[in-house]
Amino acid sequence: MHRLLLLVCACWATFASAQTQFSVTFPTSKGTSFDGRLMLFLAKDNKSEPRFQVSDDANSQQLFGQNVDGWQAGKPTLVGASAFGYPVKSLTDFPAGEYWVQALLHKYETFKLKTGYTVKLPMDRGEGQNYRTAPGNLYSKPFKIKFDPKAKQVVKIVLDQENPPIVEPKDTKYIKHIKIQSKMLTEFWGRPMYLGAHVLLPHGFDEHPEAKYPLCINHGHFPADFDGFKETPPPADMDTTDYVARFGVYGYKKFVWQEAYNFYKQWTSKDFPRMLIIEIQHATPYYDDSYAVNSANMGPYGDAITYELIPEIEKRFRGIGQGWARFLYGGSTGGWEALAAQVFYPDEYNGCFAACPDPITFEAYTVVDIYKDENAYFLPGDFKKTPRPGMRNYLGQVKCTIEEINQRELAIGDNSRSGDQWDIWQATYSPVGENGYPKPIWDKATGKIDHSVAKYWSENYDLMHILKRQWATVGKKLQGKIHIYCGDMDNYYLNNAVYLMEDYLKTTKNPHYDGEVKYGDRFEHCWNGDPNLPNHVTRLRYNTMYIPKILKRIEAGAPVGADLKSWRY
């Protein structure tokens, strides 16, 4: 028996040593020592670099990831069987063939948090938490190899390329940029932390110095600059061969540009309401934005935005500076943020227009009920595992599963460090775990749900549960302020939570919520509430859709003596 065991061990050692490995180094010209996530990419073609070919699509190319700590220049790090992969989980199972290979280092920084924990995370560097393009990240030039997982082979890769810095946007007549150091966030993170915004000034701002303006906060993902506003029309000869399969249209880039120019023409027209619109930059070390709420893992972003950034914007750009003259809107992440900010700060805002919001109750965390279900990846069954869908099109055709999305994120980074969707929900809503990182809502490998974490989510971030618990005290402050719009074929099943929220809101009394919830038949993600236009148009018209609604709220609910004239020129 003992000899058999020795023989098995010897055979395994021979097999393991024969497997193909990748030896990755970086030169001293790029630095001396780094922490981070080392990623290896393998792709069948070079239509684009392999680092840009990993996705949730069926034709995603391959990624393997592993952590590095104190990695020194010139010292090889081996990527082999222990690296976690997506879509194929292990390098030993990856099929032989010819591939384009590339490696990348996503750099981490060390943070000594107010919580007492020390964590290593990728600080946003102006790109909006994108490991592919984050300034300072090292990568290699792609090259072609013949790969055989069982061959005795070491492929050498040198990270001798570096992503350049992001160019800051420049001010124009209408668009201004602001950045402040947040005292609250700096204290939490143990290093200087900043909040920024792109501010769209109303037409006639300089010509009417006496005017003070209402403020619209257009929540959403990390904006490089103010989105959807262009002072010039698209070039007549602009290429229109680009095709967007999701919408079934050609020339969408030109169409988007034209819509942005149309908004400029409306914005500067005689009768359009004069307001300030801002898009906030609040990227965190976990994601491209903070979800605009206070979080155990990310700090007091809700307070910092509401009590530091917004008052500073109003001071600099002549905002009215009162809750009745502040309004929230956005879609997807921005839809959740708009509703959450209205719920958590009912006196500070006078209405939210939430389109296709991320799950507003975790009874329908897309297709998972985190309170009742035992597993997030599979439907319950004695002898069968039926995967839960993660994304679909308007016909219900499934693009990928929840398990696949989560395991792609796990390959990019463990401990909620992928900078992607399910990880930021976890980083926002979870308590701090024993290792200082967000406590997982479920096991990323198996999908098993931790119901103690689910209870914490319910008490602190389930917006429907919070409204039910607090309606007797906050209902009067929220009356007429809640407006929700969602396509009934939302790609991420976000309509499921909206149905439950609507059922609850209909039952509210003393007062009735007096808002609206609307659905678009067969509309997908980012529908803004207009049933008369296709999805690819409505998703571009948040500003023009909601500003007239905001004007009605101002006229109906402004307090006695409020300034309703200086900004109506």
TrEMBL record:
Keywords per UniProt: Signal
Keyword Hydrolase in annotation: no
Coiled coil start-end: none
Signal is among the record's keywords: yes
Signal peptide as annotated in the record: 1-18
SUPFAM superfamilies, per the entry: alpha/beta-Hydrolases
InterPro entries xref list: AB_hydrolase_fold, Mycobacterial_A85_antigen
Domain of life, source organism: Bacteria
Protein known as: Esterase
